[in-house]
Amino acid sequence: MHIPPATVGVVIIGRNEGNRLIACLDSLVSLIPQVVYVDSGSTDNSLIEAVNRGAHTVSLDITQPFTAARARNAGFDKLVKLFPSVEFVQFVDGDCVVNPKWISTAYDFLIGNAKVAVVCGRRRELYPQKSIYNDLCDHEWNTPIGEAKACGGDALMRVNAFKFVDGYKASLIAGEEPELCIRIRQAGYAVWRIDAEMTLHDAGMTKFSQWWKRAVRAGYAFAEGAYLYGSAPEYHWVAESKRSWVWGFVIPLIVLFMLVIHPLAGCILLLIYPLQILRLTFKSKQKNKEAFLESIFMIIGKFAEAMGQIKFWCNLYFKQKSSIIEYK
C-alpha cells in the first residue's frame, strides 16, 4: 500500500550517538519527510547532522533530568505541531537503522487492524558477532509473533491512541514502553508484534561493565513496573522482580550466613547456581554452547538486577529522583 506523504511522521531520540545517528537519519529522511530528532544534551555534532539531513530538531533543557520517555514526548509534541495531519508516528532510537520496507509494512497492518494501536517487528543487533553482550541483546529482541503486552523503543503507533493516554510517563528512567502499552491496552487497544524486519540496533557493548549497567537498569525497571502495576490484572514484572530478589539477593544472603555457621553446608548450597545454569541450558531449544553462555549471563544478571531493585526502593523511600542509567 502507498503511504500518503502526510500520514506518517518519525520521532528519533538520541544522545551522543555519532555515526549511529547519521545511519539512522539516512535510513529515514529519504522515505518520510516528517522527521523530528530530539537531542538529550549531546556534546557531539548530533544536532548539526540532523539539521543537515532535513530533520526538525528539539534540544531538551539540560537542567531537567533526561529520560527516553521525556524525549519521545517532546518529539511527539513537536511533530504534531509541525504536521497536524500526521496519523501515525514511528518512534526510533538513534542507534537504530530502519529497514526500508518496515514503515509501509507496519502502516498496512495498522490500516487493516483498527483496534491495534502499536505495532513492532523484529529488531536485530547490527554486530552480534562483536561481543557476547551484543549477541545477548539480539536474542532479547527476538520476542514472540502475535498480540503482545508491550513493544520496545522502536514501534509505529496511532497518534490518536498516543494522545488519548497522554503519551509516555516522562519520569520513568527505564521500562517506559511497557508502561505506555499497559495504558494503551487498558484503553481498549491492542499491541502487536508482526513477522517483519524492523530495525538494526547497535548496542555497542564490548565490556562487561556496560552489560552490567544495562542489567542494573533492567532491575530498576522491574521494581518500578511492579510498584506501579504489580496488582491484578497486570501483575506487571512481578515474576521478574521476584526472580531478581531470590537469585540476586536472598540466596546469596543465606549462603553467606551458612558459610559462617556451617562452611560445608554453605559450599553445598552454592551449587544451586551451576545447577540452575544447567537447568536453563537444557530448558533452551538449542541446548548448545550458546545456550549455556546465555544461561550463565542470565544468572549473573540477577545480581545486577537486584542492585537495580535496591536502587529503586531506596530512591522511593528517601524520595530521591534517579538519573538515567547509561551503559554506552
The separation of the N and C termini measures: 38 Å
Instruction: Summarize the biggest pleated sheet.
Output: 9 strands, mixed
**Class derived from helix and strand content:** alpha/beta
Bulk shape:
globular
Count of distinct strands: 9
Radius of gyration over alpha carbons? 21 Å
Mean pLDDT: 95
**Helical segment tally?**
12
Helix content: 40-55%
Instruction: Extract low-pLDDT stretches.
Output: none
Would you kindly provide a written description of the structure presented here, covering whatever features stand out?
The chain is an alpha/beta fold. It is 50% helix and 16% strand. The protein is built from twelve helices and nine strands. The protein has helices spanning 19-26, 46-52, 68-82, 102-112, 132-141, 159-164, 176-186, 208-229, 238-261, 263-270, 272-283, 289-317, and strands spanning 8-14, 35-39, 56-59, 88-93, 96-98, 116-125, 146-148, 155-158, 190-201. Strands 1, 2, 3, 4, 5, 6, 7, 8 and 9 form a nine-stranded mixed beta sheet that branches. Helix 8 (208-229) packs across helix 9, helix 8 (208-229) crosses helix 12 and helix 11 (272-283) packs across helix 12. The longest helix has 29 residues, at 289-317. It starts with 7 loop residues before the first strand and ends in an 11-residue tail after the last helix. The model has no long low-confidence stretch (mean pLDDT 95).
